[in-house]
Amino acid sequence: MVAADVEDNWFRRFKPSPDAKARLVCLPHAGGSATFYFPVAQALAPDIEVLAVQYPGRQDRRHEPFLTSIDAIADRVAELLRDKTDRPLGLFGHSMGAMVAYEVARRLEQAGAPVAGLFVSGRRAPSRQRDENVHTRTDDGVITELRRLSGTEMDLLGDEDVVRMILPVVRNDYRAVETYRYTPGPPLSTPVVAFTGTDDPVASVDEVGSWADHTAGDFELVTLEGGHFFLTRHQPVILRHLSEGLGAVHA
To answer: Annotated catalytic sites, by residue?
Structure first.
């Protein structure tokens, strides 16, 4: 498989913008897919080109084997982004995607290609560990967690065929998240913006605020009303921060 084919597997360009001033790589949450970020790509084009990451094992990549750790995903994404620093490059991730985005940023910085901005959402800082075991639960237990976080349309969870299709993906992603362990190292040089919901059951405002410890650059904590998927209710606010963050770097 040639390099271009590999890249096409991983990145979705819903709104190609060859003359964009900056690029933003968006990384999905557990059980999520690249299409979650279609509205973001549509809103930011043509000034910012969005590359939405498609993890293996879902949608059009459903026949590919899962990657079972955050580090394995970050390794692959970082490798594909090393030649995309011809313009400011930002990373945005929600929940599991925030963890991947952080580890990608670390790898790019170690390779001498620091990102212009890291935007993390709905995830406590890497150094703030909780003991979680959703991936070891029964199928009913995993579905209960999905309902708690409201990350999947509730009517779909009543469809046995749909549940059977998504559970392996969700369980794998939860395994990657829950077995991740932060390896201490120097803070990033890139500015970090962290978004959090006031009532997020898996990431308190205090835990998200600890992202400040992981950068030597500027840090901003943006607190918005809502639970774990607060971002769907506050899209204009988040889009403004993304656009201004990358636009300011470009300027």
So the answer is: 95
